[in-house]
Amino acid sequence: MNELVRPSRLAPGARVAVVAPSGPVAEERLQAGLDLLRGWDLDPVPAPHVLDRHPDLGHLAGTDADRAADLQRAWCDPSVDAVLCARGGYGAQRVVDLLDWDAMRAAGPKVFVGFSDSTTLHEAFAVRLGLVTLYGPVAAGIDFVKNARAQDHLRATLFAPETVRTLTSAVASAGSGTPLAPGRARGVTLGGCLTLLTTGYGTPHTRAGARGGLLLIEDVGERPYAVDRALTQLLRTGWLDGVAGIALGSWDRCGPYEELRPVFADRLGGLGVPVVEELGFGHCEGALTVPFGVGAELDADAGTLTLDEPALR
Length: 313
Hints:
Elements: E1 15-19, H1 27-39, E2 43-46, H2 64-76, E3 82-85, H3 92-95, H4 101-106, E4 111-114, H5 119-129, E5 133-135, H6 142-146, H7 148-159, E6 166-168, H8 170-173, E7 184-193, H9 194-200, E8 213-220, H10 224-237, E9 245-252, H11 257-268, E10 275-276, E11 290-292, E12 295-299, E13 304-307
Parallel strand pairs: 1-2, 1-3, 3-4, 4-5, 7-8, 8-9, 9-10
Antiparallel strand pairs: 5-11, 6-13, 7-12, 12-13
Helix pairs in contact: 10-11
């Protein structure tokens, strides 16, 4: 697995497009997110359909065609320096095949930020554009508009990425607990929401496997048996063959962690690679921003992920 192209960091005055490729967006929270971005001396521009609702399918932010058009238009606009998702939910899988990837590749690299359902897009940007992306808070997300830790870490990643090259596990920082599987490993970061990785397997926009990678996974609202099922799917398909190491993020509303930990130990312990717990990204309060596509070292004993280079140039 090769490292991907790193986009340029943002500077004051950078134009940021906010799009909704997945679920419907709450206007009040969007406005709060836009205000926060303006406070960072950025120029946020909401996409034309960012507040749309699908006429028949209430779980979608507008029609597939409009959501895809917003994303592609923003990406291909030379005045736009970054594209931020407004929220997750569901729907990115319905737009990824509608995008003109040749046109988006020709537009050149820029920053992409999103998490959860945007896992589908992170994989597509890696496969189709060979581009580093940021798995972090969304512009209309409650964590982004209300949590200082999430705000500060994303801001540092965008403007001064050399200051946030090491992520530390909550278990390690608390000074207690042991790694799920000890050791150190080097590789290229990839991952996202576990459910989206499994449902994307076999499609043209998802990698065939995690060989040589440091896999960062998390999820929300999936019971322990469903997490078991998803990991078993990745094991049975061979997608996890050759993975160098694994970092686990948050598992909000997935059941008590004492019920999840045996699942991780059973399904991942036999891989013989380091596994770090509770790295602090995903659907959790104060979520960290993690880059996908950069070389890094995972130290399970120290509970750290250290990037070889800043996420952005």
